[in-house]
Amino acid sequence: MINDDLGPPLLVVRGITKTFAGVLALSGVDLEIARGEVHCVLGQNGAGKSTLIKTLAGVYSPDAGEIFWEGTPVTIADPVAAINLGIATMYQELDVVDGLTVAENIFLGHELDTLGMLRRGSANREARALLERLGHPDISPGREVGQLSPASKQIVSMARALSHDTKLIIMDEPSAVLDSEEVKNLFRVVRELTASGISVVYISHRLAEIREIGDRITVLKDGRSTASGLAASETSTADLIRLMTGRTVENVFPKAVPISPDAPVLLEVDGLAVHGVFDEVSFTVRAGQIVGLAGLVGAGRSEILEAIYGARKASSGRVSVGGKRLRPGSVRDAVDKGVGLSPEERKSQGLILDQPVYRNVTLSSFGRFARLAFLNERAERNAARGQLEALELRPADPERETRTLSGGNQQKILLARWLVHGTKVLLLDEPTRGVDVGARAEIYSLIRELAAAGTAIVIVSSEIEEVLGLADDVLVIADGRVVHAAPARSIREDEVLDLVMKGSAP
After folding, report:
1. CATH superfamily placement of domain 253-338+425-434+452-506
2. Do residues 368 and 417 make contact, with C-beta atoms less than 8 angstroms apart?
Protein backbone atom coordinates (compact mmCIF):
# COMPACT_ATOMS: atom_id res chain seq x y z
CA MET A 1 0.00 0.00 0.00
CA ILE A 2 1.44 3.36 -1.04
CA ASN A 3 1.94 5.77 1.82
CA ASP A 4 2.02 9.37 0.59
CA ASP A 5 2.57 10.74 4.10
CA LEU A 6 6.17 9.51 4.35
CA GLY A 7 7.83 12.35 2.46
CA PRO A 8 9.42 12.18 -1.00
CA PRO A 9 9.42 8.97 -3.06
CA LEU A 10 11.94 6.37 -1.97
CA LEU A 11 13.49 6.11 -5.44
CA VAL A 12 13.26 8.29 -8.54
CA VAL A 13 14.96 7.40 -11.82
CA ARG A 14 15.02 10.01 -14.58
CA GLY A 15 16.24 9.51 -18.13
CA ILE A 16 18.54 6.57 -17.46
CA THR A 17 20.52 5.52 -20.54
CA LYS A 18 22.88 2.57 -20.94
CA THR A 19 24.74 1.37 -24.04
CA PHE A 20 26.66 -1.87 -24.60
CA ALA A 21 29.02 -2.08 -27.58
CA GLY A 22 26.94 0.43 -29.51
CA VAL A 23 23.63 -1.25 -28.64
CA LEU A 24 21.20 0.94 -26.69
CA ALA A 25 19.89 -1.18 -23.80
CA LEU A 26 18.18 1.68 -21.92
CA SER A 27 17.08 4.89 -23.59
CA GLY A 28 15.69 7.47 -21.20
CA VAL A 29 13.92 5.23 -18.66
CA ASP A 30 11.84 6.91 -15.94
CA LEU A 31 10.75 5.16 -12.75
CA GLU A 32 9.37 6.34 -9.42
CA ILE A 33 8.97 4.07 -6.39
CA ALA A 34 6.86 5.19 -3.45
CA ARG A 35 7.45 3.98 0.08
CA GLY A 36 5.55 0.85 0.98
CA GLU A 37 4.33 0.06 -2.54
CA VAL A 38 4.60 -2.91 -4.86
CA HIS A 39 5.74 -1.43 -8.16
CA CYS A 40 5.60 -3.88 -11.05
CA VAL A 41 7.92 -3.58 -14.04
CA LEU A 42 6.71 -5.26 -17.22
CA GLY A 43 8.25 -5.75 -20.63
CA GLN A 44 9.15 -8.38 -23.17
CA ASN A 45 12.48 -10.19 -23.01
CA GLY A 46 15.06 -7.69 -24.24
CA ALA A 47 12.99 -4.67 -23.21
CA GLY A 48 15.65 -3.55 -20.71
CA LYS A 49 14.31 -4.91 -17.42
CA SER A 50 17.50 -6.78 -16.49
CA THR A 51 19.69 -3.81 -17.39
CA LEU A 52 17.52 -1.50 -15.28
CA ILE A 53 17.66 -3.91 -12.33
CA LYS A 54 21.44 -4.22 -12.53
CA THR A 55 21.78 -0.44 -12.75
CA LEU A 56 19.79 -0.03 -9.53
CA ALA A 57 21.79 -2.86 -7.95
CA GLY A 58 25.11 -1.18 -8.77
CA VAL A 59 26.23 -3.83 -11.27
CA TYR A 60 26.10 -1.35 -14.16
CA SER A 61 26.80 2.38 -14.17
CA PRO A 62 24.38 4.43 -16.33
CA ASP A 63 25.79 6.49 -19.21
CA ALA A 64 23.30 9.29 -18.55
CA GLY A 65 20.36 10.15 -16.33
CA GLU A 66 19.76 10.74 -12.64
CA ILE A 67 18.93 8.58 -9.61
CA PHE A 68 17.42 10.09 -6.46
CA TRP A 69 17.24 8.15 -3.19
CA GLU A 70 14.92 9.59 -0.56
CA GLY A 71 15.03 12.91 -2.40
CA THR A 72 18.82 13.10 -2.65
CA PRO A 73 20.81 12.52 -5.88
CA VAL A 74 23.03 9.45 -5.58
CA THR A 75 25.56 7.46 -7.57
CA ILE A 76 25.25 3.69 -7.12
CA ALA A 77 28.84 2.82 -7.91
CA ASP A 78 28.75 -0.88 -7.06
CA PRO A 79 26.59 -3.56 -5.37
CA VAL A 80 27.97 -2.67 -1.94
CA ALA A 81 26.78 0.93 -2.42
CA ALA A 82 23.33 -0.36 -3.34
CA ILE A 83 23.16 -2.56 -0.24
CA ASN A 84 24.36 0.32 1.95
CA LEU A 85 21.52 2.48 0.62
CA GLY A 86 19.05 -0.28 1.43
CA ILE A 87 18.52 -1.89 -2.00
CA ALA A 88 18.48 -5.70 -2.08
CA THR A 89 18.09 -7.64 -5.33
CA MET A 90 16.76 -11.15 -5.95
CA TYR A 91 17.75 -12.22 -9.44
CA GLN A 92 15.78 -14.63 -11.61
CA GLU A 93 18.87 -16.82 -11.96
CA LEU A 94 19.31 -17.92 -8.36
CA ASP A 95 22.57 -16.60 -6.90
CA VAL A 96 22.90 -19.04 -4.02
CA VAL A 97 26.09 -21.07 -3.51
CA ASP A 98 25.31 -24.79 -3.49
CA GLY A 99 28.35 -25.80 -1.44
CA LEU A 100 27.44 -23.55 1.52
CA THR A 101 24.79 -24.01 4.18
CA VAL A 102 21.51 -22.10 4.21
CA ALA A 103 22.74 -19.79 7.00
CA GLU A 104 26.08 -19.21 5.26
CA ASN A 105 24.22 -18.20 2.09
CA ILE A 106 21.89 -15.86 3.95
CA PHE A 107 24.76 -13.95 5.56
CA LEU A 108 27.20 -14.29 2.65
CA GLY A 109 29.24 -11.09 2.41
CA HIS A 110 28.14 -9.77 5.80
CA GLU A 111 28.96 -12.69 8.05
CA LEU A 112 28.21 -12.48 11.75
CA ASP A 113 31.53 -12.49 13.55
CA THR A 114 33.32 -11.29 16.67
CA LEU A 115 36.99 -10.33 16.31
CA GLY A 116 37.13 -12.30 13.07
CA MET A 117 35.52 -15.42 14.57
CA LEU A 118 32.28 -16.56 12.94
CA ARG A 119 29.31 -16.80 15.30
CA ARG A 120 27.64 -19.87 13.75
CA GLY A 121 25.08 -20.22 16.53
CA SER A 122 23.88 -16.63 16.11
CA ALA A 123 23.85 -17.01 12.33
CA ASN A 124 21.72 -20.15 12.56
CA ARG A 125 19.28 -18.54 15.00
CA GLU A 126 18.85 -15.41 12.88
CA ALA A 127 18.56 -17.48 9.72
CA ARG A 128 15.86 -19.62 11.34
CA ALA A 129 13.93 -16.49 12.36
CA LEU A 130 14.07 -15.15 8.78
CA LEU A 131 12.94 -18.48 7.34
CA GLU A 132 10.04 -18.62 9.80
CA ARG A 133 9.07 -15.07 8.79
CA LEU A 134 8.95 -16.31 5.20
CA GLY A 135 6.70 -19.20 6.16
CA HIS A 136 9.36 -21.91 5.75
CA PRO A 137 10.47 -23.17 9.17
CA ASP A 138 11.01 -26.54 7.45
CA ILE A 139 14.23 -25.30 5.81
CA SER A 140 17.14 -26.06 8.17
CA PRO A 141 19.79 -23.31 8.49
CA GLY A 142 22.50 -25.99 8.62
CA ARG A 143 21.43 -27.79 5.45
CA GLU A 144 23.61 -27.51 2.36
CA VAL A 145 21.82 -25.38 -0.23
CA GLY A 146 22.75 -27.72 -3.08
CA GLN A 147 20.37 -30.30 -1.55
CA LEU A 148 17.36 -27.95 -1.76
CA SER A 149 14.71 -27.71 -4.45
CA PRO A 150 14.65 -24.63 -6.73
CA ALA A 151 11.65 -23.33 -4.76
CA SER A 152 13.51 -23.63 -1.44
CA LYS A 153 16.57 -21.95 -2.95
CA GLN A 154 14.32 -19.03 -3.89
CA ILE A 155 13.27 -18.74 -0.24
CA VAL A 156 16.93 -18.68 0.83
CA SER A 157 17.59 -15.90 -1.67
CA MET A 158 14.68 -13.94 -0.24
CA ALA A 159 15.95 -14.46 3.32
CA ARG A 160 19.34 -13.10 2.24
CA ALA A 161 17.64 -9.95 0.92
CA LEU A 162 15.84 -9.49 4.23
CA SER A 163 19.04 -10.04 6.25
CA HIS A 164 20.18 -6.53 5.30
CA ASP A 165 18.70 -3.24 6.53
CA THR A 166 16.54 -3.19 3.44
CA LYS A 167 14.22 -0.42 2.27
CA LEU A 168 13.70 -1.66 -1.31
CA ILE A 169 13.65 -5.27 -2.51
CA ILE A 170 13.83 -5.94 -6.24
CA MET A 171 12.28 -9.33 -7.11
CA ASP A 172 12.98 -10.64 -10.62
CA GLU A 173 10.48 -13.37 -11.54
CA PRO A 174 10.25 -14.56 -7.90
CA SER A 175 7.34 -16.93 -8.59
CA ALA A 176 8.96 -18.73 -11.53
CA VAL A 177 9.91 -21.79 -9.44
CA LEU A 178 6.98 -21.67 -6.99
CA ASP A 179 3.71 -23.59 -7.04
CA SER A 180 0.34 -21.95 -6.35
CA GLU A 181 0.50 -22.35 -2.57
CA GLU A 182 4.06 -21.01 -2.44
CA VAL A 183 2.99 -18.02 -4.55
CA LYS A 184 0.27 -17.30 -1.99
CA ASN A 185 2.93 -17.40 0.73
CA LEU A 186 5.15 -15.10 -1.35
CA PHE A 187 2.31 -12.60 -1.66
CA ARG A 188 1.72 -12.78 2.09
CA VAL A 189 5.36 -11.92 2.72
CA VAL A 190 5.29 -9.09 0.17
CA ARG A 191 2.21 -7.56 1.83
CA GLU A 192 3.86 -7.79 5.25
CA LEU A 193 6.96 -6.08 3.88
CA THR A 194 5.02 -3.20 2.34
CA ALA A 195 2.89 -2.83 5.46
CA SER A 196 6.13 -2.22 7.37
CA GLY A 197 7.18 0.49 4.89
CA ILE A 198 9.51 -1.58 2.68
CA SER A 199 9.02 -1.06 -1.06
CA VAL A 200 9.07 -3.89 -3.59
CA VAL A 201 9.89 -3.80 -7.29
CA TYR A 202 8.15 -6.90 -8.66
CA ILE A 203 8.96 -8.28 -12.11
CA SER A 204 6.85 -11.04 -13.60
CA HIS A 205 5.55 -12.20 -16.94
CA ARG A 206 2.37 -13.45 -15.26
CA LEU A 207 -0.14 -10.67 -15.71
CA ALA A 208 -2.58 -12.26 -13.25
CA GLU A 209 0.07 -11.92 -10.53
CA ILE A 210 0.64 -8.27 -11.41
CA ARG A 211 -3.07 -7.63 -11.03
CA GLU A 212 -3.19 -9.38 -7.65
CA ILE A 213 -0.07 -8.03 -5.94
CA GLY A 214 0.81 -4.76 -7.71
CA ASP A 215 -0.04 -1.18 -6.78
CA ARG A 216 1.46 0.55 -9.81
CA ILE A 217 3.07 -0.53 -13.09
CA THR A 218 5.88 0.73 -15.30
CA VAL A 219 6.14 -0.78 -18.80
CA LEU A 220 9.39 -1.01 -20.79
CA LYS A 221 9.69 -1.55 -24.52
CA ASP A 222 12.92 -1.44 -26.52
CA GLY A 223 14.77 0.16 -23.60
CA ARG A 224 12.21 2.94 -23.10
CA SER A 225 9.49 3.39 -20.51
CA THR A 226 6.27 3.47 -22.54
CA ALA A 227 4.21 4.05 -19.39
CA SER A 228 5.14 4.75 -15.77
CA GLY A 229 3.04 4.71 -12.61
CA LEU A 230 -0.08 3.07 -14.07
CA ALA A 231 -2.62 1.90 -11.49
CA ALA A 232 -2.51 -1.91 -11.56
CA SER A 233 -6.19 -2.24 -10.68
CA GLU A 234 -7.32 0.13 -13.43
CA THR A 235 -5.17 -0.88 -16.41
CA SER A 236 -6.56 -3.60 -18.66
CA THR A 237 -4.56 -6.62 -19.76
CA ALA A 238 -5.08 -5.59 -23.40
CA ASP A 239 -3.55 -2.18 -22.68
CA LEU A 240 -0.56 -3.72 -20.91
CA ILE A 241 0.11 -6.10 -23.79
CA ARG A 242 -0.17 -3.24 -26.30
CA LEU A 243 2.30 -1.14 -24.26
CA MET A 244 4.75 -4.06 -24.05
CA THR A 245 4.58 -5.24 -27.64
CA GLY A 246 3.37 -2.25 -29.63
CA ARG A 247 0.56 -4.42 -30.95
CA THR A 248 -2.48 -6.34 -29.75
CA VAL A 249 -1.59 -9.91 -28.78
CA GLU A 250 -4.47 -12.11 -27.74
CA ASN A 251 -3.32 -14.48 -25.01
CA VAL A 252 -5.20 -17.40 -26.55
CA PHE A 253 -4.03 -20.88 -27.40
CA PRO A 254 -3.89 -22.25 -30.95
CA LYS A 255 -6.83 -24.31 -32.04
CA ALA A 256 -6.28 -28.03 -31.54
CA VAL A 257 -6.34 -30.34 -34.54
CA PRO A 258 -8.54 -33.45 -34.07
CA ILE A 259 -6.44 -36.56 -33.55
CA SER A 260 -7.24 -39.50 -35.74
CA PRO A 261 -8.21 -42.62 -33.79
CA ASP A 262 -5.92 -44.47 -36.21
CA ALA A 263 -2.90 -42.31 -35.31
CA PRO A 264 -0.11 -44.59 -34.12
CA VAL A 265 0.86 -44.66 -30.45
CA LEU A 266 4.35 -43.15 -30.32
CA LEU A 267 4.85 -43.13 -26.54
CA GLU A 268 3.60 -45.79 -24.14
CA VAL A 269 4.27 -45.47 -20.42
CA ASP A 270 3.18 -48.53 -18.44
CA GLY A 271 3.39 -48.72 -14.64
CA LEU A 272 6.41 -46.42 -14.52
CA ALA A 273 7.66 -45.72 -11.00
CA VAL A 274 10.65 -44.29 -9.18
CA HIS A 275 10.69 -45.49 -5.59
CA GLY A 276 9.89 -42.69 -3.16
CA VAL A 277 9.19 -40.18 -5.95
CA PHE A 278 6.19 -41.32 -8.01
CA ASP A 279 4.12 -44.51 -8.33
CA GLU A 280 2.89 -46.53 -11.33
CA VAL A 281 2.19 -43.87 -13.91
CA SER A 282 0.60 -45.14 -17.11
CA PHE A 283 -0.49 -43.28 -20.25
CA THR A 284 -0.09 -43.25 -24.03
CA VAL A 285 0.51 -40.45 -26.50
CA ARG A 286 -0.41 -40.77 -30.16
CA ALA A 287 1.19 -38.99 -33.07
CA GLY A 288 -0.11 -35.41 -33.06
CA GLN A 289 -1.37 -35.59 -29.46
CA ILE A 290 -0.37 -33.31 -26.59
CA VAL A 291 -0.68 -34.72 -23.07
CA GLY A 292 -0.31 -32.31 -20.15
CA LEU A 293 0.82 -33.12 -16.61
CA ALA A 294 -0.73 -30.74 -14.08
CA GLY A 295 0.17 -30.53 -10.40
CA LEU A 296 2.06 -28.69 -7.73
CA VAL A 297 5.83 -28.25 -7.63
CA GLY A 298 7.22 -31.42 -6.04
CA ALA A 299 4.30 -33.61 -7.12
CA GLY A 300 6.57 -35.68 -9.38
CA ARG A 301 5.76 -34.17 -12.78
CA SER A 302 9.33 -33.30 -13.79
CA GLU A 303 10.61 -36.59 -12.41
CA ILE A 304 8.16 -38.49 -14.65
CA LEU A 305 9.63 -36.75 -17.71
CA GLU A 306 13.17 -37.47 -16.49
CA ALA A 307 12.37 -41.17 -16.05
CA ILE A 308 10.86 -41.39 -19.54
CA TYR A 309 13.96 -39.68 -20.95
CA GLY A 310 16.31 -41.95 -19.00
CA ALA A 311 17.86 -39.18 -16.92
CA ARG A 312 16.34 -40.82 -13.84
CA LYS A 313 16.32 -44.62 -13.62
CA ALA A 314 12.89 -46.10 -13.02
CA SER A 315 12.51 -48.70 -10.27
CA SER A 316 9.69 -50.46 -12.15
CA GLY A 317 7.52 -50.19 -15.24
CA ARG A 318 8.44 -49.69 -18.87
CA VAL A 319 8.54 -47.02 -21.56
CA SER A 320 8.16 -47.76 -25.27
CA VAL A 321 8.60 -45.48 -28.27
CA GLY A 322 7.07 -46.62 -31.55
CA GLY A 323 6.63 -50.06 -30.02
CA LYS A 324 10.29 -50.38 -29.03
CA ARG A 325 11.07 -50.58 -25.34
CA LEU A 326 13.58 -48.09 -23.91
CA ARG A 327 16.40 -49.20 -21.63
CA PRO A 328 15.74 -47.79 -18.13
CA GLY A 329 18.15 -45.03 -17.17
CA SER A 330 19.65 -44.68 -20.66
CA VAL A 331 19.42 -41.19 -22.15
CA ARG A 332 21.35 -42.34 -25.21
CA ASP A 333 18.82 -45.07 -25.94
CA ALA A 334 15.93 -42.62 -25.52
CA VAL A 335 17.53 -40.06 -27.85
CA ASP A 336 18.44 -42.74 -30.41
CA LYS A 337 14.83 -43.92 -30.47
CA GLY A 338 13.50 -40.39 -30.95
CA VAL A 339 12.85 -38.87 -27.51
CA GLY A 340 13.82 -35.27 -26.76
CA LEU A 341 13.64 -33.34 -23.47
CA SER A 342 13.49 -29.59 -22.90
CA PRO A 343 14.29 -29.45 -19.15
CA GLU A 344 12.81 -27.18 -16.49
CA GLU A 345 16.13 -25.43 -15.87
CA ARG A 346 17.06 -24.84 -19.50
CA LYS A 347 20.08 -22.63 -18.75
CA SER A 348 21.79 -25.06 -16.38
CA GLN A 349 20.47 -28.39 -17.73
CA GLY A 350 19.68 -27.85 -21.40
CA LEU A 351 22.06 -25.28 -22.87
CA ILE A 352 25.78 -24.56 -23.02
CA LEU A 353 25.49 -20.82 -22.61
CA ASP A 354 29.00 -19.84 -23.69
CA GLN A 355 28.74 -21.84 -26.94
CA PRO A 356 27.31 -20.44 -30.19
CA VAL A 357 23.67 -21.05 -31.03
CA TYR A 358 24.41 -23.56 -33.81
CA ARG A 359 26.40 -25.83 -31.48
CA ASN A 360 23.50 -25.95 -29.00
CA VAL A 361 21.12 -26.82 -31.85
CA THR A 362 23.26 -29.72 -33.12
CA LEU A 363 24.31 -30.97 -29.69
CA SER A 364 22.22 -34.17 -29.87
CA SER A 365 22.99 -34.86 -33.55
CA PHE A 366 26.79 -34.77 -33.74
CA GLY A 367 26.81 -38.14 -35.52
CA ARG A 368 25.13 -36.56 -38.55
CA PHE A 369 27.88 -33.99 -38.89
CA ALA A 370 30.93 -36.14 -38.13
CA ARG A 371 33.39 -37.20 -40.81
CA LEU A 372 36.33 -39.36 -39.69
CA ALA A 373 36.01 -38.07 -36.10
CA PHE A 374 35.89 -34.44 -37.28
CA LEU A 375 32.81 -32.25 -37.08
CA ASN A 376 31.63 -30.60 -40.29
CA GLU A 377 30.92 -27.20 -38.78
CA ARG A 378 29.64 -25.81 -42.06
CA ALA A 379 26.97 -28.50 -42.20
CA GLU A 380 26.18 -27.82 -38.54
CA ARG A 381 25.65 -24.13 -39.21
CA ASN A 382 23.48 -24.76 -42.25
CA ALA A 383 21.26 -27.26 -40.44
CA ALA A 384 20.90 -24.93 -37.45
CA ARG A 385 20.22 -21.89 -39.63
CA GLY A 386 17.37 -23.64 -41.45
CA GLN A 387 15.55 -24.54 -38.23
CA LEU A 388 16.23 -21.20 -36.57
CA GLU A 389 14.74 -19.34 -39.52
CA ALA A 390 11.71 -21.64 -39.47
CA LEU A 391 11.25 -20.94 -35.75
CA GLU A 392 11.78 -17.20 -36.31
CA LEU A 393 14.66 -16.86 -33.86
CA ARG A 394 15.49 -13.19 -33.44
CA PRO A 395 18.18 -12.56 -34.51
CA ALA A 396 18.56 -15.77 -36.57
CA ASP A 397 22.33 -15.74 -36.10
CA PRO A 398 23.82 -19.24 -35.56
CA GLU A 399 27.13 -17.72 -34.46
CA ARG A 400 25.74 -15.67 -31.60
CA GLU A 401 26.64 -16.70 -28.05
CA THR A 402 23.64 -18.47 -26.54
CA ARG A 403 23.68 -16.62 -23.21
CA THR A 404 22.98 -13.32 -24.99
CA LEU A 405 19.52 -14.42 -26.14
CA SER A 406 16.22 -13.91 -24.34
CA GLY A 407 14.38 -16.70 -22.55
CA GLY A 408 11.93 -17.14 -25.40
CA ASN A 409 14.70 -17.44 -27.98
CA GLN A 410 16.64 -19.89 -25.79
CA GLN A 411 13.53 -22.05 -25.65
CA LYS A 412 13.38 -21.95 -29.45
CA ILE A 413 16.97 -23.20 -29.57
CA LEU A 414 15.95 -26.30 -27.60
CA LEU A 415 13.02 -26.89 -29.94
CA ALA A 416 15.35 -26.46 -32.93
CA ARG A 417 17.72 -29.06 -31.42
CA TRP A 418 15.06 -31.75 -31.44
CA LEU A 419 13.73 -30.76 -34.86
CA VAL A 420 17.22 -31.19 -36.31
CA HIS A 421 17.43 -34.56 -34.59
CA GLY A 422 14.09 -35.75 -36.01
CA THR A 423 12.46 -36.32 -32.64
CA LYS A 424 9.24 -38.35 -32.49
CA VAL A 425 8.43 -37.73 -28.82
CA LEU A 426 9.03 -34.30 -27.26
CA LEU A 427 9.00 -33.79 -23.48
CA LEU A 428 8.58 -30.12 -22.51
CA ASP A 429 9.13 -29.12 -18.87
CA GLU A 430 7.97 -25.54 -18.15
CA PRO A 431 8.46 -24.42 -21.79
CA THR A 432 7.42 -20.79 -21.16
CA ARG A 433 9.08 -20.13 -17.80
CA GLY A 434 10.58 -16.64 -17.88
CA VAL A 435 9.13 -15.98 -21.34
CA ASP A 436 7.22 -12.78 -22.07
CA VAL A 437 3.63 -12.66 -23.29
CA GLY A 438 4.52 -12.02 -26.93
CA ALA A 439 7.05 -14.87 -27.11
CA ARG A 440 4.64 -17.18 -25.28
CA ALA A 441 2.11 -16.86 -28.09
CA GLU A 442 4.84 -17.83 -30.57
CA ILE A 443 5.92 -20.85 -28.51
CA TYR A 444 2.31 -22.01 -28.11
CA SER A 445 1.93 -21.89 -31.90
CA LEU A 446 5.20 -23.76 -32.42
CA ILE A 447 4.16 -26.52 -30.02
CA ARG A 448 0.82 -26.92 -31.74
CA GLU A 449 2.51 -26.93 -35.18
CA LEU A 450 4.89 -29.67 -34.04
CA ALA A 451 1.92 -31.75 -32.89
CA ALA A 452 0.09 -31.14 -36.17
CA ALA A 453 3.19 -32.45 -37.97
CA GLY A 454 2.89 -35.75 -36.06
CA THR A 455 5.08 -35.26 -32.98
CA ALA A 456 3.85 -36.78 -29.72
CA ILE A 457 4.24 -34.17 -26.96
CA VAL A 458 4.13 -34.31 -23.16
CA ILE A 459 4.09 -30.94 -21.42
CA VAL A 460 4.58 -29.98 -17.77
CA SER A 461 3.65 -26.50 -16.59
CA SER A 462 3.00 -24.91 -13.21
CA GLU A 463 0.37 -22.74 -14.89
CA ILE A 464 -2.79 -24.81 -15.03
CA GLU A 465 -4.27 -22.49 -17.65
CA GLU A 466 -1.32 -23.31 -19.91
CA VAL A 467 -1.72 -27.06 -19.49
CA LEU A 468 -5.43 -26.92 -20.23
CA GLY A 469 -4.97 -24.51 -23.12
CA LEU A 470 -2.26 -26.50 -24.91
CA ALA A 471 -3.02 -30.14 -24.10
CA ASP A 472 -5.53 -32.50 -25.66
CA ASP A 473 -5.60 -34.65 -22.55
CA VAL A 474 -4.53 -33.93 -18.97
CA LEU A 475 -3.16 -36.08 -16.17
CA VAL A 476 -3.50 -34.50 -12.74
CA ILE A 477 -0.55 -35.47 -10.53
CA ALA A 478 -0.54 -35.24 -6.73
CA ASP A 479 1.98 -36.78 -4.35
CA GLY A 480 3.52 -38.82 -7.15
CA ARG A 481 0.22 -40.38 -8.24
CA VAL A 482 -2.14 -39.80 -11.16
CA VAL A 483 -5.33 -38.75 -9.36
CA HIS A 484 -7.34 -37.85 -12.45
CA ALA A 485 -7.14 -38.20 -16.24
CA ALA A 486 -9.47 -36.42 -18.65
CA PRO A 487 -9.70 -34.56 -21.94
CA ALA A 488 -8.49 -31.00 -21.36
CA ARG A 489 -11.75 -29.50 -22.64
CA SER A 490 -13.75 -31.41 -20.01
CA ILE A 491 -12.11 -30.00 -16.87
CA ARG A 492 -11.84 -26.47 -15.47
CA GLU A 493 -8.84 -24.79 -13.89
CA ASP A 494 -10.47 -24.63 -10.45
CA GLU A 495 -11.30 -28.34 -10.63
CA VAL A 496 -7.66 -29.19 -11.36
CA LEU A 497 -6.52 -27.02 -8.46
CA ASP A 498 -9.02 -28.70 -6.16
CA LEU A 499 -7.74 -32.13 -7.20
CA VAL A 500 -4.06 -31.32 -6.65
CA MET A 501 -4.79 -29.74 -3.26
CA LYS A 502 -6.88 -32.66 -2.06
CA GLY A 503 -4.39 -35.12 -3.44
CA SER A 504 -1.52 -33.47 -1.60
CA ALA A 505 -3.35 -33.05 1.70
CA PRO A 506 -1.99 -35.11 4.62
Report:
1. P-loop containing nucleotide triphosphate hydrolases (3.40.50.300)
2. no
